[in-house]
Design brief:
five-stranded antiparallel β-sheet, mainly beta, 379 residues
Amino acid sequence: MCRNANKCTLTALMAVVCWVCLGCSPTCTPRMSVERKAWGTFEGQEVSLYTLCNSAGMTVKVSDYGATLVDVQTPDRNGNVASVVLGFDSLQRYLDNHPNFGSTIGRYAGRICGASFALDDTLYQLKANRNGSIIHGGAKGFNRQLFRVENAYTTNDTAAVRLSYTSPDGEEGFPGTLRFCLTYKLTDRNEVILEYEATTDKPTVVNFTNHSYFNLNGCTAPVLNHRLVVDADSLCVTDAHGIPNGEFKAVCNTPYDFRQCSNIGDSIGNLPKGYDICYKLNTDRPEGLTQVADVSDPATGRTLKAYTSEPGMQLFVGLIDLGNFVGHGGTRYGKCYGLCLEMQHFPDSPNQQHFPSTVLRPGETYRQTTIYTFGVLNT
């Protein structure tokens, strides 16, 4: 019991003031947080949506369906917060057909020619789903699976959710029971970090990526005025179906040269289908993670810097009209509304002996880290 009534009254008043400040005042600094809500069902199982917030005003939403990056909201130069990835507000739209908005892609990102590969003198026939080949893990790849949430937590400067999926031996034709984990992290430095891990009980091939469509203007206009830099001197040579022939060619004097900052729309008209190519990144450096891409939107001032441990990046800005899709907040998308920066190994690596290997064997652990850092222009 308090012996000094005035002291008790002052203490109680200070407690109320602190509670109001932390819980109600819009001027108080928000803290790292993770919140979960039920988001519907898939094949009779509950699907959840996790919202990660940092103290800088960023919000990231992740679903355990497809380990999907559902939404990223960041402020522009004036402090206005908006979505910067294409996506939906309801689970049902993700269950319907869509162009992999925010999906986790596995077991193998990109194409494998003829939907087959040989490993240790055994020929594996996969389930073709595109022009006789397999793309993005097949018709029911990781993007169509329900993941298990192993942990959701916060630290002083990070909010995170860790998801896992066990892909059974023979799924879509791939050998080995594969244990896959992906951790999404949002930091106080406005980093969205993706940490991948995988192990197997049989020799297999793996290649994972995230298929987010970025749009720094708030997803309200095409990305053709976005400015882009890609740290790559060469790219994979492919046929008309996007299958590499094992060779690389220089980007110099081609529409694919983004070594100097350029508007995405400047040369896209010279490409019949837009940008859909895998760069050989300049990532062979001793310091580890390398900044490989830099995107900015002059209209809003938002920026995106991408870092990865992977040797390749698929750049996709398709000349396709996304007008059939109504996204976050009822926004109807349109032509050239998204920019994909898919960090990965090269397509068809299992059939290209000169490409870096994508073979994973028992006793080994696959690891990949990709970071997307958001900010605003200084001027």
